[in-house]
Amino acid sequence: MVTAVTAERDAVLAGLAGTPTPGGTPAPPETPGPVAGDPPVPGAVEAVVTGVGPAAAAAVTAEALTRARAEGRPFHLVLCAGIGGGFAPYAPLGSVVVASRIVAADLGAGTADGFVDVAELGFGSVAHEPPADLAAEVARVAGALLAPVLTVSTVTGTAGRAADLAARHPGAGAEAMEGFGVAEAAARAGVPVLEVRAVSNPVGPRDRAAWRIPEALRALGDACAAAARPLFAAARPGGGRRAPRPGRPAPGTPS
Fold first, then answer.
1. Of 36, 59, 133, 173, which residue has the fewest beta carbons closer than 10 angstroms?
2. Contact residues for 131 (Cβ-Cβ < 8 A; gap 6+)
3. Residue whose C-alpha is closest to residue 189's, from 101, 63, 72
4. pLDDT in tens, 56-97
5. Among 14, 170, 30, which Cα is nearest to 101's?
6. How far is CA 140 from CA 96, 149, 185, 220, in A?
7. How many angstroms separate the CA atoms of 51 and 30, rounded?
8. What is the DSSP letter of 19?
């Protein structure tokens, strides 16, 4: 299970363990990497805190997957979870989004005619597909929206950029900063990935007074509690419908 910061990690682990979302307890230092100590469900979850952004998320996730495989205890599902921005009107404050697709929304080039992503340029892929049945089941039991989740390196802060992202990705539910990096590492290891985001703020002009981070963390924990059964079932060998490990595309080769 991968989060950017410890508050997200604590909310997810509390939900999966069926305990209240933590509040008022000092968080441990935010050192990227596996968390020391036993998870609340022994042997079932390894929690990894990566730091913010797709590069850190990809690097730390790849390290954890490689270490586990080398130690003979390979993972069978990667869950990327946390809070993020929600696209109106689909994902209001406090709602939860389960990714139907995990999309690198700003990986590409700016041109005189607008943004062109790297897939259009012929240099790779900009999206990963979680297992459709698992994503749908998690969304159903958690009462969440099933929709694309966008990964950005720069959080949206203007109405214009929010409108541009919504136009380029119709029906997008949320934006965050780690999902595509986590999914890229998981895909190269041949491990299924799922992304779950609770909405703490609307995508658009930055208004710190409107952010609802504690409420979003509670919603994240509640969603993970509701979805614990299908998540743990998918984390068993073969339960996440492990995909063949994809080859790395050669530079300039369309995906």
1. 36
2. 192, 194, 234, 240, 241
3. 63
4. 999 999 999 999 999 998 999 999 999 999 999 999 999 999
5. 170
6. 11, 17, 27, 14
7. 8
8. -
